[in-house]
Design brief:
The protein is an alpha/beta fold. It has 15 helices and 13 strands. The strands form 3 sheets. Strands 1-2-3-4-5-7-10-11 form an 8-stranded parallel beta barrel, surrounded by 9 helices. The chain has a 3-stranded mixed β-sheet with strand order 6-8-9, with helices on one face. A two-stranded antiparallel ribbon has the order 12-13.
Length: 443
């Protein structure tokens, strides 16, 4: 969203230059794709991030003061997060596995419901806890990429109007003011995760207040089997999140040296003949409202998994196919390159791939998917897209917002013993990071 300040463009470019000493002017993003691409990465910028991502509610366990925990106890058909994978106590092991494999970055979140378990009570102990997480990452040579809000909010916040309440943005600001006190040494901060998906989830939560709707709970993250289509995000809720993002972005800039942005779920829509106008409408509702709000940010996080056709009548459901993923989406590793190009074209700011992966029980398929996704990413970079890193989703098999079956992780976790078992895909991605080549990577 364009700034009212006349010097905002030069300020943004100076902040981007802090991330890349070789950045000499405004970002340009030619959109013509390369026709050929070998497997050697010849032009990665200094400091390119190779890592993996997680979210606190999905891995920490016993997030009892959050709205999602409360929802899990009553929603029919929703599995509970429970202990999750106990990363609350085991994060040093998780980080070490990533570092030992050869990765140099880890994206994780700070949980608002832990920092402020009741309104106005800021837990110094929990701030110290998350500071220790940041310190552990830095000690292991992992660049910490910190998300301030990843779908979950305090229970008290949700019970008093949540994001639709009059005090929502002021309350979010208070939390971020506390959280920024521990972010020394963090070079990237995402204010919110996937506000476009979160706007849709906020609508679903509002609908779920109807007792009849509670009996029909459906996961917001799967597209498997016959089901009502998920509603498009309400632009009014989206505009509220843009306002919240802008408010706390300024706090992050005032109190830290971090580059600040947010992450957007990219659908990689493609129009059927006759669906071009519908594509433009849906692209704005689902993505561009949020991407346009990133134009004054220091980076934009791209999160891509699959692509979807748009016809004259709207988004086409994924047809049944043996190659579909565990969450029912089409096998489309090419979506990442499409998403990165679109995000760069709309925002004009550097891109950080903050999520990309596949829900599958076949780790060889995960490697193949990721290899092809990276080919598309490198082609986009060859064409001039400024990409600062690639963070795979997910570091761990984890709780997938209402169910446990989908496995996205580079590391398997026994939910009874919490024993971690790195998959071959972790070694493969670490090899890509160390050697700078897809062909020479192990796996």
């Amino acid at each position: 969203m364009p700034s009212d300040h006349p010097d905002s463009a030069s300020t943004a470019n100076r902040r981007r230059s802090n991330l890349d000493p070789f950045h000499t002017g405004p970002l340009t993003t030619p959109m013509t794709p390369s026709t050929e691409r070998d497997n050697t990465m010849t032009s990665l910028p200094d400091g390119f991030l190779w890592g993996a991502s997680t979210a606190p509610h999905q891995i920490e366990g016993n997030n009892v003061n959050s709205d999602w925990w409360a929802r899990e106890q009553v929603a029919a058909g929703m599995e509970r997060s429970g202990d999750a994978v106990d990363s609350y106590h085991r994060y040093p092991e998780d980080m070490r596995l990533l570092a030992d494999a050869g990765l140099n970055a880890y994206r994780f979140g700070i949980e608002w419901a832990r920092i402020e378990p009741s309104e106005g009570h800021i837990s110094r102990a929990l701030l110290d806890y998350y500071r220790r997480m940041i310190g552990t990452a830095l000690d292991l040579g992992l660049t910490p990429v910190v998300t301030l809000h990843h779908f979950t909010s305090p229970r008290w916040f949700a019970q008093d109007g949540g994001w639709l309440g009059d005090k929502a943005i002021d309350r979010f600001r208070r939390y971020v003011e506390a959280a920024t006190s521990i972010l020394d040494g963090v070079p990237y901060v995402a204010t919110m995760n996937e506000p476009n998906m979160f706007a849709m989830m906020t609508m679903l939560a509002r609908m779920a207040q109807d007792p009849e709707q509670q009996k029909k709970w459906q996961s917001p993250t799967t597209d498997d089997g016959p089901r009502p289509p998920l509603p498009a995000p309400d632009p009014g809720i989206g505009a509220l999140f843009v306002k919240a993002h802008t408010a706390v972005r300024d706090i992050v800039r005032e109190r830290t040296d971090a580059a600040v942005g947010w992450t957007v779920a990219n659908r990689a829509f493609v129009a059927r003949p006759g669906g071009e106008e519908m594509l433009r409408d849906l692209q704005w509702v689902w993505e561009d409202l949020y991407l346009e709000a990133s134009r004054d940010d220091d980076f934009v996080g791209v999160q891509s998994y699959s692509s979807q056709w748009v016809g004259p009548g709207g988004i086409e459901p994924y047809p049944p196919h043996p190659d579909n993923t565990q969450v029912g989406t089409a096998y489309r590793p090419d979506a990442l390159g499409m998403a990165v190009r679109h995000a760069a074209e709309v925002t004009g700011v550097p891109v950080l791939v903050t999520e990309n992966g596949i829900a599958t029980g076949d780790d060889n398929r995960r490697i193949t998917y990721t290899r092809d996704a990276l080919r598309g990413l490198f082609a986009a970079m060859d064409d001039g897209i400024d990409v600062r890193g690639y963070l795979h989703w997910s570091a761990l098999d984890n709780y997938e917002w209402g169910h446990w079956e989908p496995t996205f992780g580079l590391i398997a976790v026994d939910r009874e013993t919490f024993v971690r078992t790195p998959k071959p895909s972790l070694a493969w991605l670490g090899s890509v990071a160390r050697r700078g080549s897809l062909d020479s990577a192990v796996g």
